[in-house]
Amino acid sequence: MPTPQGYRHDFHPVMSKLSLDRILQSQGFGTRKYCRKLVADGDVNIAGAIFTDNHASIETDGLEFAVFGEPHRYREHLYIALNKPANYECSRKPSHHPGVLSLLPEQFIRRDVQPVGRLDHDTTGLLLMSDDGAFIHAQSSPRRHIPKVYVATTHDAVTPELVMQLLGGVKLHDEPAPLAAVTCNILGAHQLKIVLEQGKYHQVKRMLAAAGNHCTALRRSQIGGLKLDTLCLAEGEWCYLDEEQLALLTPG
Ligand code: URA
Question: What is the CATH code of the structural domain delimited by 147-223?
Answer without folding.
Answer: 3.30.70.1560
